[in-house]
Protein backbone atom coordinates (compact mmCIF):
# COMPACT_ATOMS: atom_id res chain seq x y z
CA UNK A 1 0.00 0.00 0.00
CA UNK A 2 1.11 3.57 -0.61
CA UNK A 3 1.97 6.22 1.93
CA UNK A 4 2.63 9.35 -0.11
CA UNK A 5 0.83 12.52 0.91
CA UNK A 6 0.11 16.02 -0.22
CA UNK A 7 1.42 17.08 3.21
CA UNK A 8 5.03 16.62 2.25
CA UNK A 9 7.74 17.62 4.70
CA UNK A 10 9.42 19.35 1.78
CA UNK A 11 12.91 18.23 2.76
CA UNK A 12 13.41 15.84 -0.16
CA UNK A 13 13.39 16.99 -3.76
CA UNK A 14 12.77 13.97 -5.93
CA UNK A 15 13.17 15.81 -9.20
CA UNK A 16 16.72 16.91 -8.34
CA UNK A 17 17.89 13.46 -7.24
CA UNK A 18 19.63 11.45 -9.93
CA UNK A 19 18.11 8.03 -10.39
CA UNK A 20 20.32 4.95 -10.56
CA UNK A 21 21.10 3.14 -13.75
CA UNK A 22 18.37 1.25 -15.55
CA UNK A 23 18.35 -2.53 -15.64
CA UNK A 24 18.47 -3.89 -19.17
CA UNK A 25 15.53 -6.02 -20.19
CA UNK A 26 16.17 -9.13 -22.18
CA UNK A 27 15.22 -8.07 -25.72
CA UNK A 28 13.74 -11.50 -26.28
CA UNK A 29 11.27 -10.81 -23.44
CA UNK A 30 9.85 -7.66 -24.98
CA UNK A 31 6.17 -7.24 -25.75
CA UNK A 32 5.30 -10.39 -27.64
CA UNK A 33 2.40 -8.73 -29.42
CA UNK A 34 4.77 -6.59 -31.47
CA UNK A 35 2.58 -3.58 -30.73
CA UNK A 36 3.56 -0.21 -29.34
CA UNK A 37 2.64 0.63 -25.75
CA UNK A 38 -1.10 1.08 -25.47
CA UNK A 39 -2.03 -1.12 -28.41
CA UNK A 40 -3.62 -4.51 -28.00
CA UNK A 41 -3.57 -7.33 -30.48
CA UNK A 42 -6.77 -9.20 -31.29
CA UNK A 43 -6.26 -12.94 -31.54
CA UNK A 44 -8.03 -15.13 -34.08
CA UNK A 45 -10.58 -16.20 -31.51
CA UNK A 46 -11.57 -12.57 -30.95
CA UNK A 47 -10.08 -12.36 -27.45
CA UNK A 48 -7.75 -9.46 -26.71
CA UNK A 49 -4.15 -10.36 -26.05
CA UNK A 50 -2.84 -8.07 -23.35
CA UNK A 51 0.73 -6.87 -23.19
CA UNK A 52 3.32 -9.14 -21.62
CA UNK A 53 5.92 -6.57 -20.52
CA UNK A 54 6.22 -2.94 -19.45
CA UNK A 55 7.54 -0.26 -21.83
CA UNK A 56 10.65 0.23 -19.66
CA UNK A 57 12.35 -1.82 -16.91
CA UNK A 58 12.41 -0.78 -13.28
CA UNK A 59 15.13 1.50 -11.94
CA UNK A 60 17.75 0.64 -9.38
CA UNK A 61 16.89 1.81 -5.87
CA UNK A 62 20.43 1.42 -4.56
CA UNK A 63 21.23 5.16 -4.75
CA UNK A 64 18.53 6.17 -2.28
CA UNK A 65 18.70 6.36 1.50
CA UNK A 66 15.23 5.66 2.87
CA UNK A 67 16.66 6.02 6.38
CA UNK A 68 17.18 9.78 5.92
CA UNK A 69 13.41 10.09 5.53
CA UNK A 70 12.09 7.45 7.89
CA UNK A 71 14.31 8.00 10.93
CA UNK A 72 11.98 10.79 12.07
CA UNK A 73 8.91 8.60 11.75
CA UNK A 74 9.46 5.68 14.13
CA UNK A 75 6.11 4.71 15.65
CA UNK A 76 4.18 7.29 13.60
CA UNK A 77 1.40 6.82 11.07
CA UNK A 78 2.93 7.18 7.60
CA UNK A 79 0.09 8.49 5.46
CA UNK A 80 1.54 12.00 5.64
CA UNK A 81 5.13 11.13 4.72
CA UNK A 82 6.36 11.54 1.13
CA UNK A 83 8.75 8.90 -0.19
CA UNK A 84 11.11 9.11 -3.19
CA UNK A 85 9.41 8.02 -6.37
CA UNK A 86 12.14 5.43 -6.99
CA UNK A 87 10.56 3.31 -4.25
CA UNK A 88 7.25 3.26 -6.14
CA UNK A 89 5.95 0.85 -8.70
CA UNK A 90 4.09 2.29 -11.74
CA UNK A 91 0.60 1.48 -10.47
CA UNK A 92 -1.89 3.33 -8.32
CA UNK A 93 -3.17 1.67 -5.16
CA UNK A 94 -6.56 1.50 -6.93
CA UNK A 95 -4.93 -0.70 -9.56
CA UNK A 96 -3.28 -2.80 -6.86
CA UNK A 97 -6.74 -3.44 -5.37
CA UNK A 98 -7.89 -4.69 -8.78
CA UNK A 99 -5.40 -7.54 -8.44
CA UNK A 100 -8.00 -9.23 -6.25
CA UNK A 101 -9.52 -10.29 -9.57
CA UNK A 102 -6.47 -12.15 -10.86
CA UNK A 103 -7.82 -15.46 -9.53
CA UNK A 104 -11.46 -14.82 -10.41
CA UNK A 105 -11.77 -18.43 -11.52
CA UNK A 106 -12.10 -19.21 -7.80
CA UNK A 107 -15.27 -17.11 -7.63
CA UNK A 108 -16.54 -18.93 -10.71
CA UNK A 109 -15.72 -22.22 -9.00
CA UNK A 110 -17.67 -21.13 -5.91
CA UNK A 111 -20.65 -20.25 -8.10
CA UNK A 112 -20.57 -23.68 -9.72
CA UNK A 113 -20.67 -25.72 -6.48
CA UNK A 114 -24.00 -26.84 -5.02
CA UNK A 115 -22.34 -27.85 -1.73
CA UNK A 116 -21.96 -24.87 0.67
CA UNK A 117 -18.75 -26.38 2.11
CA UNK A 118 -17.13 -26.47 -1.32
CA UNK A 119 -18.28 -22.89 -1.92
CA UNK A 120 -16.63 -21.78 1.31
CA UNK A 121 -13.43 -23.59 0.35
CA UNK A 122 -13.32 -21.73 -2.96
CA UNK A 123 -14.03 -18.39 -1.25
CA UNK A 124 -11.27 -19.06 1.29
CA UNK A 125 -8.85 -19.79 -1.54
CA UNK A 126 -9.92 -16.56 -3.25
CA UNK A 127 -9.26 -14.56 -0.07
CA UNK A 128 -5.75 -16.05 0.22
CA UNK A 129 -4.99 -15.59 -3.48
CA UNK A 130 -5.78 -11.88 -3.15
CA UNK A 131 -2.56 -11.30 -1.18
CA UNK A 132 -0.41 -13.70 -3.22
CA UNK A 133 0.45 -11.09 -5.85
CA UNK A 134 2.22 -9.04 -3.14
CA UNK A 135 4.95 -11.66 -2.78
CA UNK A 136 8.29 -9.94 -3.56
CA UNK A 137 6.41 -6.75 -4.53
CA UNK A 138 8.47 -4.39 -2.38
CA UNK A 139 7.76 -1.30 -4.48
CA UNK A 140 4.89 0.81 -3.16
CA UNK A 141 1.99 1.81 -5.39
CA UNK A 142 1.19 5.49 -5.84
CA UNK A 143 -1.22 6.93 -3.32
CA UNK A 144 -4.44 7.75 -5.23
CA UNK A 145 -5.45 11.39 -5.51
CA UNK A 146 -8.82 12.32 -4.05
CA UNK A 147 -11.40 11.55 -6.72
CA UNK A 148 -9.09 9.28 -8.70
CA UNK A 149 -10.79 6.26 -10.30
CA UNK A 150 -9.91 3.06 -12.07
CA UNK A 151 -12.06 0.82 -14.21
CA UNK A 152 -11.35 -2.57 -15.72
CA UNK A 153 -13.56 -4.69 -17.91
CA UNK A 154 -12.29 -8.14 -18.82
CA UNK A 155 -14.78 -9.95 -21.02
CA UNK A 156 -12.40 -12.91 -21.25
CA UNK A 157 -12.50 -13.28 -17.45
CA UNK A 158 -16.18 -12.33 -17.10
CA UNK A 159 -16.12 -9.25 -14.84
CA UNK A 160 -16.00 -5.48 -14.69
CA UNK A 161 -14.51 -3.41 -11.89
CA UNK A 162 -14.66 0.22 -10.71
CA UNK A 163 -12.86 1.90 -7.82
CA UNK A 164 -12.61 5.44 -6.46
CA UNK A 165 -10.48 7.23 -3.88
CA UNK A 166 -13.26 8.48 -1.63
CA UNK A 167 -11.14 10.05 1.13
CA UNK A 168 -7.63 11.45 1.35
CA UNK A 169 -7.19 11.84 5.13
CA UNK A 170 -7.68 9.11 6.12
CA UNK A 171 -6.90 7.46 2.76
CA UNK A 172 -9.88 5.26 1.82
CA UNK A 173 -10.30 3.37 -1.45
CA UNK A 174 -13.71 1.94 -2.38
CA UNK A 175 -14.31 -0.68 -5.07
CA UNK A 176 -17.13 -2.57 -6.74
CA UNK A 177 -17.02 -5.48 -9.17
CA UNK A 178 -19.69 -7.59 -10.78
CA UNK A 179 -19.81 -10.67 -12.96
CA UNK A 180 -20.81 -10.04 -16.56
CA UNK A 181 -23.11 -13.04 -16.21
CA UNK A 182 -24.76 -11.46 -13.14
CA UNK A 183 -23.49 -14.31 -10.96
CA UNK A 184 -21.58 -12.36 -8.28
CA UNK A 185 -20.97 -8.96 -6.73
CA UNK A 186 -17.66 -8.17 -5.03
CA UNK A 187 -17.22 -4.90 -3.16
CA UNK A 188 -15.54 -3.20 -0.23
CA UNK A 189 -13.44 -0.34 1.08
CA UNK A 190 -9.85 -0.39 2.27
CA UNK A 191 -8.21 1.95 4.76
CA UNK A 192 -4.66 0.74 5.43
CA UNK A 193 -3.01 2.16 8.55
CA UNK A 194 0.76 2.28 8.12
CA UNK A 195 3.44 2.48 10.77
CA UNK A 196 7.22 2.44 10.73
CA UNK A 197 8.92 0.38 13.44
CA UNK A 198 12.61 1.02 12.84
CA UNK A 199 13.46 -1.83 10.45
CA UNK A 200 9.99 -2.58 9.12
CA UNK A 201 6.83 -0.94 7.82
CA UNK A 202 3.53 -2.47 8.92
CA UNK A 203 0.24 -2.05 7.08
CA UNK A 204 -2.74 -2.83 9.28
CA UNK A 205 -5.81 -3.52 7.12
CA UNK A 206 -9.09 -1.79 7.83
CA UNK A 207 -12.31 -2.05 5.91
CA UNK A 208 -14.66 -4.89 5.01
CA UNK A 209 -14.47 -7.12 1.93
CA UNK A 210 -17.83 -8.53 0.76
CA UNK A 211 -18.52 -11.23 -1.83
CA UNK A 212 -22.11 -12.00 -2.83
CA UNK A 213 -22.95 -15.18 -4.75
CA UNK A 214 -26.27 -14.21 -6.30
CA UNK A 215 -27.35 -17.69 -7.39
CA UNK A 216 -27.31 -18.92 -3.79
CA UNK A 217 -28.29 -15.62 -2.15
CA UNK A 218 -25.11 -15.87 -0.06
CA UNK A 219 -22.82 -13.15 1.26
CA UNK A 220 -19.31 -13.64 2.63
CA UNK A 221 -17.35 -10.96 4.49
CA UNK A 222 -13.75 -10.75 5.73
CA UNK A 223 -10.79 -8.42 6.30
CA UNK A 224 -7.24 -8.83 5.03
CA UNK A 225 -4.23 -9.90 7.13
CA UNK A 226 -1.57 -7.44 8.26
CA UNK A 227 1.26 -6.91 5.79
CA UNK A 228 4.80 -6.10 6.93
CA UNK A 229 7.83 -5.07 4.83
CA UNK A 230 11.13 -5.88 6.54
CA UNK A 231 14.66 -4.48 6.05
CA UNK A 232 13.50 -1.07 4.81
CA UNK A 233 16.76 0.47 6.08
CA UNK A 234 19.40 -2.07 5.08
CA UNK A 235 19.44 -5.56 3.63
CA UNK A 236 17.11 -7.25 1.17
CA UNK A 237 13.46 -6.26 1.49
CA UNK A 238 11.07 -9.10 2.25
CA UNK A 239 7.37 -9.39 2.96
CA UNK A 240 5.25 -11.31 5.41
CA UNK A 241 1.53 -11.45 6.06
CA UNK A 242 0.22 -12.29 9.51
CA UNK A 243 -2.96 -12.19 11.55
CA UNK A 244 -6.30 -13.98 11.67
CA UNK A 245 -8.77 -13.71 8.80
CA UNK A 246 -12.37 -14.75 9.51
CA UNK A 247 -14.63 -15.39 6.52
CA UNK A 248 -18.29 -15.52 7.49
CA UNK A 249 -21.10 -16.92 5.36
CA UNK A 250 -24.00 -14.77 6.57
CA UNK A 251 -26.58 -17.10 5.03
CA UNK A 252 -25.54 -20.45 6.50
CA UNK A 253 -23.58 -19.31 9.56
CA UNK A 254 -20.50 -21.22 8.37
CA UNK A 255 -17.17 -19.61 9.18
CA UNK A 256 -13.64 -20.06 7.88
CA UNK A 257 -10.84 -19.03 10.26
CA UNK A 258 -7.44 -18.62 8.60
CA UNK A 259 -4.28 -17.96 10.60
CA UNK A 260 -1.55 -16.24 8.57
CA UNK A 261 1.42 -17.17 10.72
CA UNK A 262 4.16 -14.69 11.60
CA UNK A 263 7.68 -15.62 10.55
CA UNK A 264 8.81 -17.05 13.89
CA UNK A 265 12.32 -18.03 14.93
CA UNK A 266 14.55 -19.11 12.01
CA UNK A 267 11.71 -18.45 9.56
CA UNK A 268 10.01 -21.76 10.32
CA UNK A 269 6.48 -20.42 9.82
CA UNK A 270 7.16 -17.87 7.08
CA UNK A 271 4.31 -17.61 4.53
CA UNK A 272 2.32 -20.40 6.22
CA UNK A 273 -1.47 -20.36 6.43
CA UNK A 274 -3.49 -22.77 8.56
CA UNK A 275 -7.13 -22.76 9.49
CA UNK A 276 -10.43 -24.55 9.37
CA UNK A 277 -14.05 -24.26 8.27
CA UNK A 278 -16.76 -24.74 10.89
CA UNK A 279 -20.54 -24.79 10.69
CA UNK A 280 -22.91 -22.62 12.73
CA UNK A 281 -22.66 -25.14 15.59
CA UNK A 282 -18.84 -24.76 15.60
CA UNK A 283 -18.27 -28.26 14.28
CA UNK A 284 -15.08 -28.39 12.23
CA UNK A 285 -15.86 -29.49 8.70
CA UNK A 286 -12.39 -29.35 7.17
CA UNK A 287 -8.86 -28.09 7.77
CA UNK A 288 -7.06 -25.75 5.36
CA UNK A 289 -3.28 -25.40 5.15
CA UNK A 290 -0.58 -24.17 2.79
CA UNK A 291 1.37 -21.01 1.95
CA UNK A 292 -0.02 -17.76 0.63
CA UNK A 293 2.99 -17.61 -1.72
CA UNK A 294 2.43 -21.07 -3.19
CA UNK A 295 -0.73 -23.09 -2.74
CA UNK A 296 -3.61 -24.03 -0.47
CA UNK A 297 -4.88 -27.51 0.41
CA UNK A 298 -7.76 -28.89 2.48
CA UNK A 299 -8.36 -32.18 4.25
CA UNK A 300 -10.77 -33.57 6.83
CA UNK A 301 -10.05 -32.77 10.51
CA UNK A 302 -9.47 -36.41 11.54
CA UNK A 303 -6.81 -36.96 8.88
CA UNK A 304 -5.15 -33.70 9.82
CA UNK A 305 -5.01 -34.48 13.54
CA UNK A 306 -3.68 -37.99 12.90
CA UNK A 307 -0.96 -36.59 10.66
CA UNK A 308 0.04 -33.98 13.25
CA UNK A 309 0.27 -36.60 15.99
CA UNK A 310 2.52 -38.76 13.84
CA UNK A 311 4.60 -35.72 13.02
CA UNK A 312 5.17 -35.00 16.70
CA UNK A 313 6.25 -38.60 17.21
CA UNK A 314 8.88 -38.15 14.55
CA UNK A 315 6.97 -39.96 11.85
CA UNK A 316 8.16 -39.68 8.29
CA UNK A 317 6.90 -36.55 6.59
CA UNK A 318 5.99 -36.57 2.96
CA UNK A 319 6.99 -33.33 1.32
CA UNK A 320 5.06 -31.98 -1.61
CA UNK A 321 7.35 -31.90 -4.62
CA UNK A 322 7.61 -28.34 -5.94
CA UNK A 323 6.06 -28.14 -9.38
CA UNK A 324 7.41 -25.99 -12.19
CA UNK A 325 4.82 -23.26 -11.67
CA UNK A 326 5.60 -22.76 -7.97
CA UNK A 327 7.98 -19.90 -7.40
CA UNK A 328 11.45 -20.99 -6.25
CA UNK A 329 12.33 -20.99 -2.57
CA UNK A 330 14.02 -17.91 -1.17
CA UNK A 331 16.83 -19.85 0.47
CA UNK A 332 19.42 -17.67 -1.27
CA UNK A 333 18.19 -14.40 0.22
CA UNK A 334 20.20 -11.97 2.33
CA UNK A 335 21.27 -12.88 5.86
CA UNK A 336 18.62 -10.60 7.36
CA UNK A 337 15.86 -12.64 5.78
CA UNK A 338 14.86 -15.83 7.60
CA UNK A 339 15.78 -19.01 5.84
CA UNK A 340 12.63 -20.33 4.22
CA UNK A 341 11.93 -23.96 4.92
CA UNK A 342 11.25 -26.39 2.13
CA UNK A 343 7.80 -26.25 0.58
CA UNK A 344 4.43 -27.27 2.04
CA UNK A 345 4.20 -30.51 4.01
CA UNK A 346 1.64 -32.44 1.97
CA UNK A 347 -0.89 -34.52 3.88
CA UNK A 348 -1.98 -37.58 1.85
CA UNK A 349 -5.57 -37.36 0.67
CA UNK A 350 -5.66 -33.54 0.65
CA UNK A 351 -7.48 -31.61 -2.06
CA UNK A 352 -5.75 -28.74 -3.87
CA UNK A 353 -7.79 -25.52 -3.60
CA UNK A 354 -5.47 -23.03 -5.27
CA UNK A 355 -1.96 -22.65 -6.68
CA UNK A 356 -0.18 -19.40 -7.51
CA UNK A 357 0.12 -18.41 -11.17
CA UNK A 358 3.52 -18.53 -12.82
CA UNK A 359 5.02 -15.06 -13.25
CA UNK A 360 6.55 -13.77 -16.50
CA UNK A 361 10.20 -14.77 -16.98
CA UNK A 362 11.28 -11.10 -16.79
CA UNK A 363 9.09 -10.32 -13.76
CA UNK A 364 12.05 -9.36 -11.56
CA UNK A 365 12.86 -6.55 -14.00
CA UNK A 366 9.24 -5.38 -13.97
CA UNK A 367 8.71 -4.72 -10.24
CA UNK A 368 7.90 -8.44 -9.75
CA UNK A 369 4.55 -7.94 -11.46
CA UNK A 370 2.37 -10.89 -12.35
CA UNK A 371 1.08 -11.16 -15.93
CA UNK A 372 -2.22 -9.71 -14.72
CA UNK A 373 -0.51 -6.73 -13.06
CA UNK A 374 1.55 -5.99 -16.19
CA UNK A 375 -1.67 -5.36 -18.13
CA UNK A 376 -3.38 -3.05 -15.59
CA UNK A 377 -1.94 0.27 -16.78
CA UNK A 378 -2.14 -0.59 -20.46
CA UNK A 379 -3.69 2.28 -22.42
CA UNK A 380 -5.27 0.81 -25.51
CA UNK A 381 -5.90 2.77 -28.68
CA UNK A 382 -9.11 4.80 -28.41
CA UNK A 383 -9.45 4.18 -24.68
CA UNK A 384 -8.87 7.83 -23.70
CA UNK A 385 -12.10 8.77 -25.45
CA UNK A 386 -14.24 6.54 -23.22
CA UNK A 387 -12.37 6.56 -19.89
CA UNK A 388 -13.35 8.85 -17.06
CA UNK A 389 -10.86 11.78 -16.96
CA UNK A 390 -9.96 10.67 -13.42
CA UNK A 391 -8.79 7.18 -14.45
CA UNK A 392 -5.35 6.04 -13.25
CA UNK A 393 -4.22 5.28 -16.78
CA UNK A 394 -4.33 9.01 -17.54
CA UNK A 395 -2.27 9.99 -14.51
CA UNK A 396 0.95 11.56 -15.87
CA UNK A 397 3.38 10.65 -13.08
CA UNK A 398 2.51 6.95 -13.24
CA UNK A 399 2.53 6.99 -17.05
CA UNK A 400 5.96 8.63 -17.20
CA UNK A 401 7.41 6.25 -14.62
CA UNK A 402 6.11 3.28 -16.59
CA UNK A 403 7.77 4.69 -19.71
CA UNK A 404 11.09 5.14 -17.91
CA UNK A 405 10.94 8.96 -17.69
CA UNK A 406 11.81 9.08 -14.00
CA UNK A 407 12.70 12.79 -13.70
CA UNK A 408 9.49 13.81 -15.48
CA UNK A 409 7.50 11.42 -13.30
CA UNK A 410 8.96 13.00 -10.14
CA UNK A 411 8.10 16.52 -11.31
CA UNK A 412 4.59 15.45 -12.30
CA UNK A 413 4.06 13.79 -8.94
CA UNK A 414 5.05 16.99 -7.13
CA UNK A 415 2.78 19.02 -9.41
CA UNK A 416 -0.22 16.78 -8.78
CA UNK A 417 0.31 16.85 -5.02
CA UNK A 418 0.57 20.65 -5.07
CA UNK A 419 -2.59 20.86 -7.20
CA UNK A 420 -4.39 18.64 -4.66
CA UNK A 421 -3.21 20.85 -1.79
CA UNK A 422 -4.39 24.01 -3.57
CA UNK A 423 -7.80 22.48 -4.33
CA UNK A 424 -8.26 21.49 -0.69
CA UNK A 425 -7.36 24.99 0.50
CA UNK A 426 -9.80 26.49 -1.99
CA UNK A 427 -12.61 24.25 -0.76
CA UNK A 428 -11.82 25.16 2.85
CA UNK A 429 -11.83 28.86 1.95
CA UNK A 430 -15.24 28.62 0.26
CA UNK A 431 -16.52 26.15 2.89
CA UNK A 432 -17.31 23.61 0.19
CA UNK A 433 -17.38 19.90 1.07
CA UNK A 434 -15.90 17.26 -1.18
CA UNK A 435 -18.51 15.00 -2.80
CA UNK A 436 -17.62 11.53 -4.02
CA UNK A 437 -18.85 10.65 -7.51
CA UNK A 438 -19.46 6.91 -7.67
CA UNK A 439 -19.64 5.74 -4.04
CA UNK A 440 -21.48 6.92 -0.94
CA UNK A 441 -20.95 6.27 2.76
CA UNK A 442 -23.40 3.84 4.28
CA UNK A 443 -23.74 0.64 6.29
CA UNK A 444 -22.65 -2.79 5.19
CA UNK A 445 -25.94 -4.76 5.07
CA UNK A 446 -24.31 -7.91 6.45
CA UNK A 447 -21.93 -6.69 9.15
CA UNK A 448 -23.77 -3.52 10.19
CA UNK A 449 -20.46 -1.61 10.11
CA UNK A 450 -19.68 1.60 8.25
CA UNK A 451 -18.82 1.00 4.61
CA UNK A 452 -18.59 2.71 1.23
CA UNK A 453 -21.24 1.46 -1.18
CA UNK A 454 -21.40 1.76 -4.97
CA UNK A 455 -23.93 4.37 -6.10
CA UNK A 456 -24.18 2.97 -9.63
CA UNK A 457 -24.16 4.68 -12.99
CA UNK A 458 -20.46 4.61 -13.79
CA UNK A 459 -20.80 2.50 -16.92
CA UNK A 460 -23.43 4.91 -18.32
CA UNK A 461 -20.31 7.00 -18.99
CA UNK A 462 -21.65 10.40 -18.05
CA UNK A 463 -18.40 11.98 -16.91
CA UNK A 464 -19.41 15.62 -17.30
CA UNK A 465 -19.11 16.46 -13.60
CA UNK A 466 -15.88 14.58 -12.84
CA UNK A 467 -13.26 16.67 -11.00
CA UNK A 468 -10.12 17.96 -12.72
CA UNK A 469 -7.39 16.25 -10.68
CA UNK A 470 -4.61 15.82 -13.27
From TrEMBL:
Q: Where does this protein have compositionally biased stretches of type Basic and acidic residues?
A: 310-331
Q: Is the keyword Zinc assigned to this protein?
A: no
What is one GO biological process annotated to this record? lipid transport
Coiled-coil stretches noted in the UniProt entry, renumbered to this chain? 399-433
Q: Which family does it belong to?
A: Belongs to the OSBP family.
Q: Which UniProt keywords apply?
A: Coiled coil, Lipid transport, Lipid-binding, Transport
InterPro entries to which the protein is assigned, alphabetical:
OSBP_sf (IPR037239), Oxysterol-bd (IPR000648), Oxysterol-bd_CS (IPR018494)
The record's Gene Ontology cellular component field reads: cytosol; perinuclear endoplasmic reticulum; plasma membrane
The record, for Pfam families, names: Oxysterol_BP (PF01237)
List, in alphabetical order, the Gene Ontology terms for molecular function in this entry.
cholesterol binding
UniProt lists compositionally biased (Polar residues) regions at: 28-40
Q: Which organism is it from?
A: Cuculus canorus
Lineage at the top is: Eukaryota, Metazoa, Chordata, Craniata, Vertebrata
Annotated protein name in UniProt: Oxysterol-binding protein
Identify the stretch(es) annotated as Disordered: 24-43, 310-332
At the top level, the lineage of the source is Eukaryota
